[in-house]
Design a protein that fits this description.
By secondary structure, this protein is of the alpha/beta class. It has 15 helices and twelve strands. The strands form three sheets. It has a six-stranded parallel sheet, sandwiched between helices. Strands 3-4-5-6 form a four-stranded parallel sheet, sandwiched between helices. Strands 1-2 form a two-stranded parallel sheet. Helix 4 packs across helix 5, helix 8 packs parallel to helix 9 and helix 8 crosses helix 14. The two termini are 22 Å apart.
Length: 361
């Protein structure tokens, strides 16, 4: 588990010849009852899912901090038992706190380990566990300096086939240009609040597809459904709101949208650059080492977008910048001819996985 998009790409590339167990989290956030997207998607695909109830270091102190830390040894014990029962040929980690106890258990059990780093630099978990890994797959050359050189290979960040070739249709009863607004799989309360305060004005000119996330803490989805019901029939038909889209649907949403408003996670940015999609990015202010701002600048420097500062972004400024971009979409063209995201990244990772599985520690 860890990051779902590249994991799904690799699962697709592995195909039916591989027996797969996905280890991840059932709930999206600590203390929240919302089901995680990874649990929903993986189980719907008929892939075995092992739930890991582990803890993590938190950047901010909350009432969940101490309970979370106490679950770290529990997570290791669970990971040990899961691997002992499944007996995998190889363990593949995609970053994030869930992968830490699994990779540690795999090392002790002498199971080959491959990790994949999606970012321009390196996530904290992957940097730590790289010393245990047989191979480290990186998405960008800029990541190489953070990992042992003798075990690091540049594969690229895999883009899902359903992003490149959508399989499902999304219909709106409007011919107005479509804006897709997303906070990622977890959603973004800050972005949802911006939309709530200027939705009616946006719908004067545009159709809006809005993915809110499923977090129960703020009830954003429920509030926006109520707001939609209060709109006149024309505007109501131009607004599609959902907690999340399935992977098979996201490619179509991106395809039909003229502009994407999003956070700046590297997998989102990777897809937007691959599709050359004009984007207005609002980086998560508390991301590790300001990672999302670096991702957003990467996309902007390639000529594809603009950046909004969440701390100073008002509804008035938000709608003004959206209008400005929509009026000048022809400006947003990919400047570089370099292919940053090779289409064969998933197959390269699978080659590394099979090679590593034949060479145990």
């Amino acid at each position: 588990g860890g990051h779902l998009a590249p994991a799904l790409s690799v699962i697709e590339e592995l195909g039916k010849d591989a027996e797969i167990l996905y280890i991840g989290r059932k709930h999206a956030l600590e203390g929240d009852k919302a089901i995680s997207l990874e649990y929903e998607v993986i189980t719907q695909k008929g892939i075995d899912f092992a739930i890991l109830k582990t803890g993590r270091m938190q950047r901010n102190i909350t009432r969940y901090t101490i309970p979370s830390l106490t679950r770290v040894p529990i997570g290791f014990s669970q990971a040990w038992l899961i691997l002992k029962k499944f007996k995998p040929s190889v363990v593949v980690g995609f970053g994030g706190y869930v992968s830490f106890p699994v990779i540690l258990a795999a090392k002790i059990l002498r199971i080959p380990i491959v990790i994949h780093e999606q970012t321009l630099e390196a996530g904290a978990t992957n940097k730590f566990v790289s010393k245990f890994a047989n191979k480290v797959c990186i998405s960008f050359e800029s990541s190489r300096k953070y990992f042992p050189r003798d075990k690091t290979v540049l594969t690229g960040n895999p883009i899902r086939e359903t992003i490149l070739h959508p399989r499902k249709k999304i219909l709106l009863e409007s011919n107005d240009p479509i804006i897709y607004i997303t906070g990622g799989s977890l959603g973004s309360h800050a972005i949802n609040m911006l939309v709530e305060k200027c939705l009616s004005e946006m719908l004067d000119k545009y159709s809006v597809i809005h993915q809110t996330g499923a977090a129960a803490e703020f009830n954003d989805f429920e509030k926006l459904v109520i707001l939609k019901e209060g709109l006149n029939i024309d505007k109501r038909n131009k607004y599609l709101v959902t907690k999340h889209f399935l992977p098979e649907e996201v490619g179509e949403v991106l395809k039909i949208s003229k502009l994407v408003v999003a956070r700046a996670g590297i997998n989102t940015v990777s897809e937007l650059v691959t599709l050359e999609k004009p984007s207005y990015l609002i980086p998560l202010p508390i991301s590790q080492k300001d990672e999302q701002m670096k991702n957003a600048l990467f996309l902007k420097n390639l000529g594809l977008g603009e950046i909004g500062d969440q701390k100073s972004l008002t509804p008035q400024l938000f709608i003004s910048q959206i209008n400005s971009m929509m009026q000048n979409l022809s400006r947003y063209k990919l400047k570089s001819t370099t292919t940053h995201f090779p289409k064969n990244a998933a197959s390269k990772i699978v080659e590394v996985i099979y090679a590593s599985s034949k060479n145990p520690n």
